[in-house]
Structure formats: C-alpha cells, structure tokens
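User: Could you check the structure of this?
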Amino acid sequence: HPAEAYLSLAGRFSDVWPQAISGLHALERIHSHVECFRKIKSDLAEGRRVLFLRYEDYYKKPEKRISDILNFLGISMSRERVLEVASETCISKNMQLSSGKNFGDIDEMTQLHGQHVNPVTMGRPGQTLKNHPRASQLRSEYKIVEACRAFGYDF
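Assistant: Sure, the predicted structure tokens are below.
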C-alpha cells in the first residue's frame, strides 16, 4: 500500500535525515514508482510478459510467492527447496540480516538497510496505517492519493 510504504519509509529515513526532509524524500521515492508502474502496465498491454506481485497477497503465503515467480519464469523447484527459500527470505530472517543501527547502515553482503523491518509491525500489511498517528493526514496528500489510485489501492 503506497500510504503505508510512505509512512514506513519516512520513518526509516528519519534515522538519517531530519523529519521534514525524510518525509519529502519518502514522498519522492514512492511517487517515482507511479510512472514506472504505468510504463510497465503499458508494456503489458503491448504483449510483454509481466508478473505483478502485491505484498499483501503473499505476506502470509511465502511459498505461493516463490511458486508464482518460478511458474512465471518457467523454472521448477522441489517443494523442499521452495520451503528453504521461503525460510531464507522471511521477515524474521531479514530482521536478523539487517542488523545495522539505523536505516543508513547498509550491510555489504546483503545490501539490506539496517532496521528496515519495524519490530512492532513486523511488516504485517495494514498495521502501519492502522497505528500511525499521521495516517489519516495522508488522505489530503495528492501524491500519496494518486499513488494509491495508480496501484489500485483504496485509501
């Protein structure tokens, strides 16, 4: 959800920049994906094979996410290997690997930002929008509303 991504990213950026600047950077990053998404949808309309994955659809179904990607790519993998990949790419594993003190710390091996997983929400879809004090204020932020519409989210 673009509004949830914005709130999360702005919060992480505030580890690195002052809050006002972190909000602007987060808004810029989220909104930059809108044009990219529109171009990909255009490519799809022109016959290019595209696989869209919505985070919310796969949060509780990591094996399905991996299987859908494998099917799209035409690759087969044993059930045991799919489970292993799911285990190695789960939220808790990402938390372990992103051990930097703040978002500005990037792990050289994994390229994960430090503290990129919120330990309170654990990446659960809807939790940031439900609990963040600024969530309702975003309804008047044009770029967030536009991003929600572009990606097919109600807000």
